[in-house]
Design goal:
With about 190 residues, this protein is mainly α. The protein is built from 9 helices and 3 strands. The chain has helices at about 20-30, 55-60, 65-70, 90-100, 110-125, 130-145, 150, 165-175, 180-185; strands spanning about 40-45, 50-55, 80-85. It has a 3-stranded mixed β-sheet, with helices on both faces. α2 (about 55-60) crosses α3 (about 65-70) and α5 (about 110-125) runs parallel beside α8 (about 165-175).
Length: about 190
């Protein structure tokens, strides 16, 4: 647990090439011990191939994609999935939200960077069908525009907080009719 009382999230310290071995070892431990009631899965994220341990029940309960990936007939059902295209920082925010239902990006004081991070998290949630996370991010983005003094200390109240690069990213990574696209067009 961290100082805020939520579980501390740590990357799997093992090397990505050992992730399959780690799964086999964990599975053997779970099979041998009746005290292990929560299965753990491994997600290898980003081009860096950083492995993350995750509670299978939590991650599968967050999205149909993960449910199908870990409990369906995919090869990933073995307990290991690779998310090579995804950003590690965005995935860490997802894992934080998964455990606490909060998104803590308070350390980012620059409005434009914060808006970019939230937009990237929305795109991630949209990609994997994580509806609750999408809704949470949209609430935070709306609050950013409506109450900039509440969420930022930048000295630029009322100014737009979207980078051109963020607009491009959202446009190219969402589908027509996306709520995030509509939101950006409206502000």
């Amino acid at each position: 647990m961290n100082a805020a009382g939520s579980p501390s999230l740590k990357r799997n310290a093992e090397h990505p090439q050992d992730a399959g071995t780690a799964i086999a070892k964990k599975s053997k431990i779970e099979d041998d011990s009746s005290s292990c009631k929560t299965p753990i899965v491994v997600l290898v994220v980003g081009p860096e191939q950083l492995p993350f341990d995750a509670d299978k029940n939590l991650i599968c309960g967050s999205s149909r994609f993960f449910e199908a990936a870990f409990n369906g007939r995919f090869k990933e059902s073995s307990g290991l999935i690779e998310l090579e295209e995804d950003d590690v920082d965005v995935f860490e925010h997802f894992m934080q939200w998964l455990h606490s239902r909060e998104i803590d990006i308070a350390q980012v004081s620059d409005r434009k960077r914060r808006f970019t991070q939230l937009s990237r998290l929305y795109v991630f949630a949209d990609k994997y069908g994580i509806v609750r996370l999408k809704n949470h991010v949209m609430t935070m983005l709306f609050d950013t525009i409506k109450h900039p003094e509440r969420t930022y200390r930048t000295g630029e109240p009322g100014s737009h907080c979207i980078r051109i690069e963020t607009m491009d990213y959202v446009y190219y990574n969402t589908v027509r009719g996306s709520l995030l696209r509509k939101f950006i067009a409206a502000i």
